[in-house]
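Deliverable D4.2, example record:
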Amino acid sequence: MRPRKGVNVASIVGSPEEEVSRPNLRLRVVGAVVLVLFGVLVLRLWTLQVVEGKSYAAAVTRNQVRVVSIPAPRGAIVDRNGTMLVSNQPQQEILLSRAEAAQNPTIVGMVAALVGQTPQQVQAAVNNNRYSPYEPVPVATGVSDATVQFLQTHQSEYPGVSVQTVTQRTYPQGGSTATHLLGYLGNISQSYLAAHPNQGYTQGSQVGVSGIEAQYEPYLRGVDGRQALSVDAQGTVVGTLSTTAPKVGDTVVLNIDTGLQQVAEAALANQIAVDRKTPDVANGGILPKAPNGAVIVMDPQNGQVLALASYPNFDLNEWVGGISQANFSALQQSGAENNYAIEGLYTPGSTFKLATATVALQSGLWPVGKYFNDTGTFHIAGCPAPGVSNDTGCVLHDAPGDVGGYYNISDALTVSSDAFFYNLGQLFWQNQSQYGVTPIQDQATAYGMGTITGIDLPGESQGWIDSKATRARLHAQAPKAFPYPAQWFTGDNVEMAFGQGETVITPIEMADAYSTFANWSPTTQSGTRYAPEVANEIVDPLTGKAVKTIAPKVTGHVAISPTNYQAMLAGFEGVIANPSGTGYGAFQGFPSNWNLAGKTGTASNQKGEEPNSWFVAFGPNPNPQYLVLAVIAQAGYGADAAAPVVRTIYNYIYSNQNQVAGAVTTPTPANPPSATTPATNPPFGTPSATTTTTTTAPASTTTTSTTPGGG
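Output generated by the structure prediction step:
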């Protein structure tokens, strides 16, 4: 085999002597490359200095400046007479730089010793991620002037430590006045922060959690200020560059009268204390539990809420600076955090007869002059069902003490005849083809029962009216609690007609319903339903000008003919004025020149529990300015527990009507709110200083009904 011939490079590439020299071409190529590189360099420099120069300059500035927010003082809350209910109290707050704490751990112990805390407490505050990492962290609030002065004179020994003035909520009328209505503040939650972007909130913000504080948060919070701080490379503040002062929040002016509010709260609490010590002889001598209750005072002509009380109560001062977990758990366990005036769901009992009487008259089912023979018992038609021998539950009875008789609809309301309304419920059921399937429920809804009233307070619950559809819905939501889906018989309609069964109503719904009846106009031949309103206006405290005026809001109308209205009004007036009326005993001795109308309610609960006690009254008629409602859970008869509360409140209103329902005072810089309440007159019936009597309780604290029945 012959060896393979190798490749000769020389045979492929020519020698230098054989190739033509081209130096100019090489120079051009090298020069072009250099120019391109130089152009890229120039373009990059131009981009950095011209196009992106401002952003880089800003970045450098950000490394030198930290902008922090200055919390604005919250707006005040005042009553209709310019009495301060919620204001602010300046407090000195000590802050510590996180950067300094990280670089100089010994400062944590020094600050702890300065403010009387443990190093662990101060470190926990520094580590709290609810504060911005670029802002100093508050470690102590409400420090003494001596501590502040010491820090100012020894500032060099405490690097990274600063002092600022903040405000905390204070309650000039005491922290237990109108607590549920006013509400409290709390640390902002992540969900709230996410739902309100670009509104100036930070992780360290405080916001209204309940009551007026939450409802009018956008107005009360004010506008935070800003402070530009100069910092070094380690993030330590070395100076202040500029400061924009915060703007105080707006003032919320309420329709509430402080004196009336305090009387309502005291009357409710005192009566519950009496109820718990008064055995119910008719029910085996058991002591009522009376766990909670509510009082509402409204102007039926416009929906203004003049007082709103809930029991049990709590102290708003517990929330200032943050409530402890132990206290918060105790509040929840006792139910004190609930506002029962708008959240409580109570079986209404005979107060519901307002709806049944209205639709019976308006539909023509029961004319004004028609009478019914109340024998004290009522047998449900068609009960028991065919083939069933047990008639348990087929015979219904009036409330103990009812004497029976022949009643028209006015009389039936006055004495609260249950059998009369049993009969109406049965008649409506038997005549569905003429009156419809749910005439009573529809009338109750027209009055606002079982619907959201729209009161300007957060957390309002919604009641419901018993019906076949309601039971199906309740069963779907809680099958064990409501095990009878879509069942409805004659007996169910009978129970619903006098406020029993599965019907539950909130106190604010019932107050709104009776206000709608009370403001009936002969011109329109209807009552107007208003949304209850706690606030009257929002005012700029610096100018005294109204930022927002809260006008009455009409939410519905209830048509009632003059004849039917007068018949019902006569019945309600008889509750108080007629010796046979269920509220007569509680209102004996009240001035006769004030013509009041009212209605008791005694609503049965589960076996072994006392009934819910209701009473509602409005007057003076024919143009009532005041509607007062009280309800106490498991307290007994409406005439025995709730009626005395209403009487006590009317005693105060009668003597102080000009203040309670006078014109609302708008606070201005020239006429600022006052920390003291206006002078008031003693409630009607209060013994004078010269009277030699040993009686200390007002006449309205009667706890034993002097009239038959009481339902």
